[in-house]
C-alpha cells in the first residue's frame, strides 16, 4: 500500500525519491540513497536490511544493478518485496514480487520510475511518470517528485482489502544534488493527509538548506540559526 517515484535531473546532477503510503513512518524503513550514485526503495513487505545491503555492496565497488540483484537473490522472501533502483547515470532496476498486493507493478518514464502496491490501478503509476515528465524541465526535481506523488493520489492512490480508498498516512522525500554534502531529506511520519504535509515541510526546510550546508563546512561566519530564520521571516 505504497506509491513511490524515483527521479533524476541530469542537468543539475540531482537524484531523489518521493514516497507516500498508508503505513506509518515510511521514511524510516523504505528509502535509501548513496549520494552521486544511486537512490532506491525497498517496500511492500519492507525490510530495511535489503536497502542497507545494497548500499554496502555499492560502497564496496559492486555495480548498483548487480548489487540489487544480489540482494534479491539472498532474500528469503523476494516474492513479498518491491525494490526499485535508479542511478545518477540513469540505469534502472525493478523487482516486484509475485505476492505483493495488487495492483502491484511499476512504470518507467524518462529519468524516472514509479513503483507501487495495493493500488487502485496501474493508472496510478502511469499518472506519476506522466506528471514527472510533463512538468517543464525548469521545475526543480523536488517539485517534480512531489507533483508525481500528487498525481498518483489523484489517480486513485491506494485501495484497501475492502476496496475502499486508503489515506496517505506518511510520506517522505530525499533529494541530493551533486556537490552538496548531504541531501534535502524530509518526512511526515503520521498524518491523515501526508502529501500536503510533506509539501509544507519541504517548503520550510528549503529556506534553511543552504544554511545547514554552510554550517557543516564553514560555520565560523554564520549568524545564530534563530537570527537567520528571523531575517527570512522579515524579508
UniProtKB/TrEMBL annotation:
Any Pfam family matching the protein = DUF1028
Q: What name goes with this protein?
A: DUF1028 domain-containing protein
* Lineage, top ranks: unclassified sequences, metagenomes, ecological metagenomes
Amino acid at each position: 500500500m505504497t506509491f513511490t517515484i524515483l527521479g533524476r535531473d541530469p542537468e543539475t546532477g540531482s537524484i531523489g525519491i518521493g514516497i507516500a503510503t498508508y503505513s506509518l513512518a515510511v521514511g524510516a524503513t523504505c528509502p535509501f540513497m548513496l549520494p552521486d550514485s544511486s537512490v532506491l526503495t525497498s517496500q511492500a513487505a519492507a525490510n530495511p536490511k535489503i536497502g542497507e545491503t545494497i548500499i554496502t555492496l555499492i560502497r564496496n565497488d559492486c555495480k548498483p544493478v548487480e548489487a540489487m540483484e544480489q540482494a534479491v537473490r539472498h532474500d528469503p522472501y523476494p516474492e513479498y518485496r518491491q525494490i526499485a533502483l535508479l542511478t545518477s547515470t540513469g540505469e534502472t532496476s525493478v523487482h516486484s514480487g509475485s505476492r505483493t498486493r495488487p495492483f502491484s507493478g511499476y512504470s518507467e518514464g524518462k529519468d524516472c520510475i514509479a513503483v507501487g502496491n495495493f493500488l487502485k490501478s496501474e493508472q496510478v503509476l502511469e499518472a506519476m511518470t506522466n506528471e514527472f515528465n510533463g512538468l517543464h524541465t525548469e521545475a526543480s526535481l523536488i517539485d517534480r517528485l512531489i507533483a508525481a506523488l500528487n498525481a498518483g493520489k489523484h489517480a486513485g492512490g491506494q485501495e484497501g482489502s475492502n476496496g475502499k480508498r486508503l489515506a496517505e498516512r506518511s510520506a517522505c522525500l530525499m533529494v541530493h544534488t551533486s556537490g552538496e554534502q548531504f541531501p534535502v531529506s524530509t518526512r511526515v511520519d503520521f498524518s491523515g493527509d501526508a502529501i500536503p504535509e510533506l509539501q509544507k515541510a519541504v517548503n520550510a526546510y528549503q529556506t534553511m538548506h543552504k544554511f545547514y550546508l554552510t554550517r557543516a563546512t564553514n560555520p565560523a561566519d554564520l549568524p545564530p540559526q534563530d537570527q537567520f530564520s528571523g531575517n527570512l521571516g522579515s524579508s
